[in-house]
Design a protein that fits this description.
The complex is a heterodimer of chains A (294) and B (442). By secondary structure, chain A is of the alpha/beta class. Chain A is built from 8 helices and 14 strands. In chain A, 39% of the residues lie in helices and 24% in strands. Chain B has 442 residues and is an alpha+beta fold. A 5-stranded mixed beta sheet of chain B has the order 3-2-1-6-11, sandwiched between helices. Chain B has a 5-stranded mixed beta sheet with strand order 14-13-12-17-18, sandwiched between helices. In chain B, helix 5 packs across helix 13, helix 7 packs across helix 8 and helix 7 packs antiparallel against helix 11. The longest helix of chain B has 25 residues. Chain B: It is a peripheral membrane protein.
Chain lengths: 294, 442
């Protein structure tokens, strides 16, 4: 009789992965391969896409131009524009000099201003002691300047020059009478010893009306020159105390009212006074008549 | 002997590598199913709520498990290499897929191969010195090697007892002082061709063998409680093609054996007795099988079914009592065979004679009333201990040896080849002896 049901004629083997499938599965589970597929392949694909896109120089230029355009648009916004420069704490001439030196063409974007370099430029001006720059809200470049105060008039071979208490040159002067209020210095290296000169001027307060100036001798010591050609030679060290010593004698004995030409304090333990030749002759005459001997 | 030492050392080194990598696979090649579990070893065990680490096996977690029907395996031995390799591939790939990790090292169990147990004894003279590692290795090497026969391979060689002078029952004699150090060693041998076939199959799957264990032994580790192992107990692993027997005492395996009969024989009996196909017989066995018949079973009729096309043949029915009548003699035969092996091993001399039935065959209904009649009163049906991450479907008695292999992988027993034998020690020893002779005589 023919079977009514379908018969399984062939024995079907149990399913099993083939050797190749098994090996591929194991390979896929290897940590390095897994990591490569998770990260390596996408990164590689992105890199290839980017590389192909930018291989064309025209497209590269277009992207660069687009980036520059965006950048310029942002930088030239009203919020970033600087329209004014305000200089505080400087005299008219110095302020003009700062404006001439910086040469900023307003209006300008604050991104184009290099404030540290501008500060260096301003500070390098001789009349400027220190400067601080900032961009104030409202588009104002605010420069605050502290000027050097001229303390002396220094006469040297080049002419007259104003220097401050630290010895830095401030500006040149046309004539001594322009700044008659400042004491006069002369001699080579006087500017380097300006701080000491300040002290000497302070100590010489009692004879200030008669003081003509200080002379730097040999870049090592000072001479104090008074009116009528009287001179005080000061030592290299402890010059201020030597001057005070001389002034004390002057106060007690009225030294400079006499016919004294020179007070030599170079050796502090042996002060020497030179009197005028006529007075010396007279003094000898007086001594001869009174004592009968020299 | 030395080859064995070297190959087992190499396998231990492989196991160390696997532990360092943190992932190892467990392969239980049985007659009815092939199970593959993937373990991940945690360097620091996670603190668990409630039950803390039990017997040190919380240090690993099962991250992948797969089971497949076994092909080409008979009596726990590989019969058709190609089919077995395909089945192993299926199981390993399934477990890898679940774990999402690649495994390179595998620990396998051998359930067939006619295991034979040997008890060895050895002793050395110590002359009042402290026992060092070297002495332990020496006394293990001093055990007299019995003639294990041609074509046999040593699977386990575990020291089970150390004795120092008159004191016996030591687990670790190191550091103690004595004159004579003696040891007892349990050695298990199996057929070398069975092992060679298994190793070849595993190699063909691109896996490295990191350990081999006896199936009966690892079932015992998984199913016996700790105090049962201490007091003396036997574990009977009723598998598909072979029934394994392992006897534990003082937490050591002291005897292992196997009977080459199992569930497959029961199935073939049903197939022959009822004239049905093997698949139908297997289904009837698992759904309706039993070993104790009641009057209810006479009225419980089972349709045999069939696809022969012969209407009368395909419409046969059989009562459940008849099915039980076919199954029971075979199960009795297996248990009686086990009883004979237990008697041969002098099991009744142990302080406790607990018998634990495990394996797929232990799930036959009514076995808990049949087994005590043959094996004695202290019989229980056991299940393997729970391990972390094991899927629910793999927690049954049929997975006793797979779970036992996990425990074996996590805490292996010291074997003879774990101790370094030093070839030059004889020279140093004779020199010492000469020095002593000089001191005593001059």
């Amino acid at each position: 009789m023919r079977p009514l049901t379908r018969r399984r004629t062939t024995h079907r083997a149990d399913p099993a992965p083939s050797r190749l499938a098994y090996r591929m599965h194991r390979l896929a589970l290897t940590p390095a391969v897994r990591k490569g597929f998770t990260f390596g392949v996408p990164i590689l694909a992105l890199a290839v896409m980017a590389g192909l896109t930018f291989a064309d120089p025209e497209r590269r230029g277009a992207v660069t131009a687009w980036v520059d355009d965006i950048k310029a648009q942002i930088q030239s916004r009203e919020e970033f524009m600087v329209r004014l420069m305000a200089v505080d704490g400087a005299s008219e001439t110095v302020s003009q000099a700062i404006r001439d030196t910086l040469k900023v063409g307003f209006p300008v974007s604050s991104f184009d201003l290099d404030l540290p370099a501008m500060q260096d430029t301003v500070t390098s001006l001789p009349a400027v002691k220190e400067a601080s720059l900032r961009i104030r809200p409202g588009g104002i470049l605010d420069i605050r300047v502290v000027e050097r105060e001229p303390a002396f008039v220094w006469r040297n071979s080049d002419g007259l020059r104003l220097i401050d208490a630290a010895g830095h040159a401030v500006e040149t002067a046309e004539a001594r009478t322009d700044r008659a209020d400042l004491p006069l210095l002369s001699g080579i290296g006087a500017d380097a010893a300006a701080p000491e000169a300040v002290e000497l001027i302070k100590a010489a307060a009692p004879i200030l009306p008669r003081l003509r100036g200080l002379v730097r001798i040999g870049e090592r010591r000072w001479d104090v020159v008074l009116s009528d050609g009287q001179k005080i030679r000061l030592p290299e060290t402890r010059a201020v105390s030597a001057l005070e010593q001389v002034l004390a004698v002057d106060e007690a004995q009225d030294l400079f009212a006499r016919d004294v030409v020179l007070v030599d304090m170079r050796t502090p333990r042996r002060p020497t006074v030179r009197i005028a030749p006529q007075a010396a002759t007279d003094l000898r005459q007086v001594k001869m008549t009174e004592l009968g001997d020299d | 002997m030395f080859d064995l030492y070297q190959s087992q050392r190499a396998m231990r080194a492989m196991r160390q590598t696997a532990m360092q990598r943190g992932v190892v696979a467990i392969l239980d090649v049985g007659t009815s199913k092939i199970a593959c579990l993937i373990l991940r070893f945690d360097p620091t065990p996670m603190p668990t709520e409630g039950v803390g680490p039990m017997a040190g096996h919380s240090a690993f977690r099962i991250i992948g498990a797969a089971t497949t029907r076994s092909r080409g395996v008979r009596f726990g031995e590989i019969d058709a290499m190609h089919e077995t390799e395909r089945a192993i591939r299926t199981a390993v790939q399934g477990a890898q897929k679940m774990a999402q990790v690649r495994v390179d090292h595998v620990i396998a169990a051998v359930s067939g191969g006619g295991p034979r147990s040997y008890g060895l004894a050895g002793q050395i003279a110590l002359s009042g010195q402290q026992v060092a590692d070297r002495d332990v290795a020496e006394v293990l090497s001093a055990c007299e090697m019995p003639n294990i026969g041609e074509g046999r391979e040593v699977l386990h060689a575990q020291p089970v007892n150390f004795a120092l002078d008159h004191r016996s029952g030591m687990n670790d004699p190191r550091g103690q002082v004595g004159d004579i150090l003696a040891c007892d060693m349990h050695m298990l041998t199996v057929d070398s061709h069975v092992i060679a076939n298994l190793i070849h199959c595993i190699k063909r799957c691109d896996l490295e063998l990191a350990g081999l264990a006896s199936g009966a032994y690892v079932s015992g580790i998984a199913s016996l409680l700790e105090d049962e192992q201490e007091l003396g107990a036997a574990c009977i692993d009723m598998g598909g093609g072979a029934t394994g027997l392992s006897i534990f005492w003082r937490k050591h395996l002291i005897y292992a054996d196997a009977v080459a009969m199992g569930g497959a024989q029961v199935t073939s009996d049903i197939s022959k007795g009822l004239q049905v196909s093997l698949a139908t017989a297997e289904r009837m066995k698992t759904l309706h099988g039993g070993v104790v018949a009641t009057s209810m079973d006479d009225r419980d009729m089972i349709e045999l079914g069939g696809e022969s096309g012969d209407w009368d043949h395909d419409r046969r029915t059989v009562s459940r009592a008849e099915l039980i009548g076919i199954m029971r003699p075979r199960v009795e035969e297996i248990l009686e065979e086990i009883r004979a092996r237990l008697d041969a091993a002098v099991f009744e001399a142990l302080p406790s004679q607990q018998i634990v039935l495990t394996g797929g065959g232990s799930q036959i209904p009514g076995l808990d009333t049949l087994a005590p009649r043959i094996l004695g009163q202290q019989v229980r049906i056991g299940r393997p201990v729970r391990v972390a991450g094991l899927p629910e479907k793999a927690t049954g008695a049929a997975f006793a040896s797979a779970v036992g292999l996990c425990l074996f992988a996590a805490n292996p027993q010291d074997e003879w080849w774990d101790f370094d034998i030093q070839p030059e020690r004889h020279g140093a020893r004779s020199l010492r002896r000469a020095m002593r002779w000089f001191k005593e005589n001059w």
